[in-house]
Every structure is written in C-alpha cells, then in structure tokens.
Design goal:
alpha+beta, 60s Ribosomal Protein L30, Chain: A, homodimer, globular, six-stranded mixed sheet, four-stranded mixed sheet, Phosphoribosyl-aminoimidazole Synthetase, Chain A, domain 2, 10 helices, 323 residues
C-alpha cells in the first residue's frame, strides 16, 4: 500500500525523527510545543553545483545543509529546537542517501536539533537541500542584525577566509603549501562549524549579530547599512588560519579573497564597549576564539578597512551574489 | 553596497513582510512570539515540470505554492501564523516575479498568513518553490492523521478528482464537454482552495484528519494504516463536480482517476459517530460542503471501495509517488 516516497521516508528519515513533535513522520505536519519562548525561524537552501560540488561527500553535504542554518540560530542567540528538511532528488540513490542520512542524524544529535518533518520531491535538475531550523530564545531576546551602535566593538569568531580558499583549491585556482593545509582548507569549505557554543554569550552580551556567509566585508557592510552606522576595521586584526596565512605570504591568495570570500559561517558581532570584557570572558569559557577587528561609528559611509600602516584597503567585490 | 540578491528581496518581497516578526527581512531569521499556542509546522515544495507546468501563470504558481501548505494547516486544525519562502530561480525575471509576488501577497493577506522570511538561491535547473508554513493550535490540540478509530465516519470536503482531470485536459489526455467545464477543471488543478474555513470545525470535532494531496484512495489507505484500522467506502458517495461527472458519463474519465488522482487539496476526516452531527453543522456554518463517504472498521486489510450495487471496486494505482 505504501509508495516509494513513503518507503524512502520510513527507511531513511524516520530513525532521525526522535522528537515527539515529529510524530514519527506519519503526519503532514510537526508540532512544537508551547514553551513560553519566542521561536526563531531560519531557512537556507543549498543547490548542487552552486553551494556545493557534485562530488562533495554526501556526509559533508548533509552537515553543510544543517550547519548553515545552525549558524544562523547561533548568531541570533537561539538554542536549537529542531528542523524541517526538503530534499529535491533526481532519484532515490542508496549510495547517496545512506551516508547523507547517517551524517545528518549525528549532527542532529550533536547539536540537539532533531528532525521534525519535511518533504521529498523529485526533480530532473540539480539536487537541492532546503533546511528550515527552529530555535528558542526568551521573549524579545532574539539578537538582531540592525542594532549596531556607534562605539560598539566589532568582533568575529574563528578564522576568516578559509572556506573561500578551500573552494579555490578544489577548483584549481590555488595550490596549498602542503597536504595538511590542503585538507584543512577544503574541510573548512565543505563542513562549516556553527558557533552554537557561542550562542549564549551572544544573547547575553551582543548588541547586534549575524553569521558571515557571503564574505566578511559584505556582511559587515550589510550590518552597518541595516543599523544606519559605519565602521572602521583593521584588516590585519582579522583572524586568519596559518594555512591561509601561508597562501597569502606566498602570493597565492589575496587579502581581498580572505575578506570577501563566502562560506565562513563564523559570527560577526557588535558589542557595546562596556560589555566587551564580559563577552570575551564568556567566549573563552565556550572555547570559541574571538577577535576584535574594529569599531562602529556614526555615519552612513561604507565601512573603511585599514592596513597595518593605516592606509585604506580597497575592496572591489564585497560579497558573493547569486543574481 | 547591496547585491542583486538584496535588491531582489527589497524590491519584491519586503512589501509582503508586514508582520513585525519578519523584521522587515533585514535579518537572517524571523521570530514568532511566544503565545502559549503549540506551533504546527508544515513544508511542501513544488517543482517546475513536476508539480506545476512551465507555462502555468506565475500568479497560479504562487497560489499553489502557498495553498498546498495552508491546506495542511487546515487539516491539522491550525490557524495560519506565517510562512517562509525558499525560491530557487534560474534568473531574476521581472515578468515572472512581479505577478508571482503580487498573487502571493494577496493570498498572504486573504488567509492571514504573512511572509516571515526565506531564502533565494540560483539554480541551473527547474525552478523550485518551497514554503514552510506555521499555524497555531491550543496546546495538544493538533489533529492527527493516525487517530482514526473503528466506527468513525469518513468525511471529505468539496469535490474529488477535479484537479487530476484538469491535468489530463492540460496534457491532452482528455477533452472537456464545454469551455466552462474545461476552465473549471484546469483551475481546480492550478489553484487549490485550502479549506481554512473548516479548520476550526476539524479541531473541535474531528478525531483524525489529513489533506488529500496524493489521491483520495491512497491517502485514505495511509490514514487507515497509520491508525491501525481499515474502512469501507461507498464509491458513489464520493462528491464529484458536474464537470467531472460529465467526463465520467461520456466515458472520457474513469472512476479510478477520480479516486486516485492527486492534487485535490480537500480534507479527509475521521469523525466519531457522536460528533458527526456537530461537525456537519459546523461545516455548514463555514460554508464548506462535506460528504460522508464511509466508515472505519477494525482490521488491518486495505480499505474496501464498494459500488452502488455493493460490488467491490478494484483500484490498481492508489496514489501518485515521486520515486
């Protein structure tokens, strides 16, 4: 009596639907129980050949699909509550689905973000994976992008630019100095590390926050524009991995690529000066490295990037755009 | 400073983001305020060439994308709260987007379901529109699919099979008796009418419910299987439009196509015998026609369909499957 679609769901996805709200995936809808929390909603889709490469490992694709959304939840200061998955597939290929679902299940458990439901459709075109993730915050506590104020310190997590360089390596536009750097940078492209551990610190201490998905320079410009402020940044304060630094030193990568390349999935925060110490202490407790890279200021000009010598750095392409 | 993607959002989608929780679409996330309600979550995607035809009018595609989700909310007894939209586009085509967004905005207003956020990505393949819709119900009140009990009366809304016949007309597999029937059936395929007006009656009086998207016979079989019961149905009690009846009478359409064709987006409910009168009265007040078509019974056999003469109707293909 069951269709191929139902078999697919029963076989691959039902084991992941551990939350009672998922209703064992037998229903057309899931339920999130009232809890007195605001619900933060975010959705990001990844398309084969656009956001990931056709020969990326299925497990890495699964992790990217979920983690780009977990990254948004962390930036909003939210605790993960669950996700919906929409898969557009050319066919139900076991060799793809088995490792894809296994990795997704591991991540769902690791981040406390269970599968609640979804939709599976066929497409003659490229595969597409769309995730809608839900997080909880106390009422009114979602951290906004458009709340940066003059004098706020600009802070980023982790290291910037690795993913863009990883994509360059995969597409033959650059060569890493050694095998270790090669693997590190490619992994940074394929498998974002959402800064969920920093969500509480962001909620407690950040005035504004967003995740960096389209390039640091462009995303910072968006935050400034949305907030009606400008900012001055020290380009050499931007944290860079040793693998990326080696590529820059050798001339194989440009600073512009670091600042403007996409797929970082690090957090960009504006912290009021009087909250900075508490934020840095909370970040240290969460074991996520963070770095102060500049300061917001009154004005509506584009943010200024300064080199170590105080000269303005010119960035021609600020971020990735689909259209 | 803004990208093409941001322009697209500002131009087309920001006017639809009227709810404060949408945060004017400047953020990567939306927020649904705590309200003491359970939140019902549902997601359905439609793919060009699979769920709609490339030359379907953009306004009809917009309505279908949202309404198939509103139909799920109605079946769960939920009041719409908002939706997220993920659009995978080959390009940002004004002649598509302008009428698409206008129709989407009208429906969002008409059904009280505002745009809260979304994602826009490029794809080299067919267009895909994925909607995640949110509804509210009192705690614990979501109406389930798997709660049908022996003795419950089986009720459907509206008329069944029109959409499948409309698709047959569009694809040249059938010819309508006249222009009016032709337009009616095609409209039933292109523009589902979610039974939102019936949601309260479903919540108050139905034991089990789901919307009919993959064909009445198959969806009923799913409800029975999920609930661990069987059912006996009177095929001639299934409500059929006069346009569909004309096609059947002339031999141009088969009963099997009516019972097994997809895209009805009517509601299928199991109503305890003692609730039937109250449900029918509430349905009448909501001005949605409903019809009793059978009764659930103990057992795990496939549901039986009987003709007017009491003979068993054999249905070979119960429902549409993607894989």
């Amino acid at each position: 009596m069951s269709s191929g679609e139902d078999d697919l769901i029963a076989r691959y996805f039902k084991p992941l639907a551990t939350d009672p709200g998922a209703r064992g995936l037998v229903d057309d809808a899931a339920v999130l129980a009232a809890s007195g929390s605001d619900l933060v909603l975010t959705t990001d889709a990844i398309v084969e050949g656009v956001h990931y490469l056709s020969d990326d490992p299925p497990a890495a694709i699964a992790r990217k699909a979920l983690r780009v959304n977990l990254s948004d939840l962390a930036a909003k200061g939210a605790t993960p509550a669950g996700f919906l998955l929409t898969l557009a597939l050319r066919n139900a290929d076991e060799s793809f689905l088995a490792p894809f679902v296994e990795a997704l299940g591991r991540d769902a458990a690791a981040y406390g973000c269970p599968l609640l439901g979804g939709d599976t459709v066929s497409t003659p075109g490229p595969m597409m994976i769309s995730v809608t993730a839900f997080g909880r915050v106390p009422p009114g506590a979602m951290v906004r992008r458009d709340a940066l104020q003059p004098g706020d310190r600009i802070v980023v997590s982790g290291t910037i630019g690795d993913a863009a360089l990883g994509l360059d390596l995969l597409q033959g536009r650059a060569t890493a100095a050694n095998e270790h750097d090669h693997a590190f940078l490619i992994n940074r492209y394929r498998e974002p590390q959402p800064r969920s551990a920093l969500a509480q610190a962001v909620r407690d201490h950040a005035r504004a926050a967003m995740d960096i998905s389209d390039g640091l320079a462009g995303d910072l410009a968006k935050m400034c524009a949305a907030s009606g402020v400008t900012a001055t940044l020290q380009a050499d304060a931007v944290p860079v991995s040793s693998a990326a630094r080696t590529l820059i030193s050798s001339g194989a990568a440009a600073l512009q690529r670091i600042l403007s390349g996409g797929d970082d999935y690090e957090l960009l925060c504006g912290i009021a000066a009087e909250q900075l110490e508490s934020f840095l202490a909370a970040a240290q407790r969460s074991a996520v490295p963070v770095a102060v890279i500049g300061t917001a200021a009154e004005g509506t000009a584009a943010p200024r990037w300064l080199s170590a010598s105080g000269c303005e750095v010119s960035l021609t392409a600020l971020s990735y755009s689909h259209f």
